[in-house]
Amino acid sequence: MVNKFHHCSLKIPLNEVQISTISKFNSLVYEGKILIHERKECFCGGKEFETLSSFDRFCLPFGTQICKSCGLVSQKLSISENSLQLFYDQIYWPLIRGVEKKNIYKNLFKTSPKKEESQSFVLPYLLSQKKENIRIFEVGCGEGLRVKKLVKELNKFGINNQAYGCDYSTEAIKNFEKTNIKVVIGGIESLETFGKADILILSHVFEHMNDLKKALEQIKKIIKTDGLVYIEVPGLIDLKNKVEYGYSYQNYNVLAHVYNFSLVTLSNVMSFGGFKLIEGDEFIRSVFTLGTSQQTKSGYKQIKKALKDSRIKEKSYEKKNSFYRYIKRLLKVLLGKKGFL
Ligand SMILES: [Zn+2]
């Protein structure tokens, strides 16, 4: 059967590194080294979906769908669990940042977090527990902005701490060579050897996880009974405030994001795993702990409304940008070719 052909237009310019990385990714898929699987059932068990997009920001066929029952947004096609190590080590960062693998972290160190924070979101909750010693774990620690910041803050308060991290990228370890943070190559299960954490950081990681039920089991294995879980993901409801995506859902959507969360749909998933929300916003920054939470509710309507709002903002943003481009071109002509614009 031939599927209906959908047209995709790139909204972002790609550089040479990105174009060659897409070719490499395609080859790995054709060769069967990166496996792709189709999702037919939602995390909640629902089977009725509505398509939100057919492509990701690179026009690769990793479209998304929203579950009509719980509102959780997931990819129709995802990269299989067993292929993630290869994908994150070889493809992900050169594709996202447009720089060669060997230069990734040189480049990343110059970028600051998107949300300015005077202190870590989780710090007040951690301090309120009045622990004398705190064990920190970070999954997918990459450049380590979150874990390094928290270590610094705890040191300032004179609280003993030990920090451990894991990442699929072999380049990541290099970021921690001159620190006391011990980092290993691998996924969440690789942290088991370090005992149990008082605080587990999952910053821009949870939306990449393929099998959430398995991930929740693994999280439980590596945190203490009173441990905190900090989860940060690019919140879907907040898209209308995210200029970095041009407010565009297609730009926001990327092949590595298996799920797009709102605070409601994230809390539903966590609740299934036996975690309750302590505090969170739609950015999303959130703190969970073990415990039963209130009954789950559907995030469907809120998400549909938010996507509509951001679509309106995206259109006016595009219009404004094309107007500025027009004025710039016009001034260039008027001021001569050597204009300073
Ligand atoms: Zn669902």
Q: Name the overall outline.
A: globular
Q: According to CATH, what is the class of the largest domain?
A: Alpha Beta
The SSE order reads HEEEEEHHHEHEEEHEHEHEEH
Number of helices: 9
| Classification by helices and strands | alpha/beta
Pfam families: Methyltransf_23 (PF13489)
GO molecular function: transferase activity
Keywords: Transferase
What can you tell me about this protein's structure?
One of its GO terms (molecular function) is transferase activity. InterPro entries: SAM-dependent_MTases_sf. Keywords: Transferase. The structure is a single chain. The chain is of the alpha/beta class and 341 residues long. It has two domains: 16-107, no CATH class; 117-300, Rossmann fold. 33% of the residues lie in helices and 20% in strands. The chain contains nine helices and 13 strands. It has a seven-stranded mixed beta sheet with strand order 8-7-6-9-10-13-12, with helices on both faces. Strand 9 (197-203), helix 6 and strand 10 (223-232) form a beta-alpha-beta unit. The protein is globular, with a radius of gyration of 21 Å. The relative contact order is 0.12. The mean pLDDT is 90. The site of zinc ion has 8 residues, from loops.
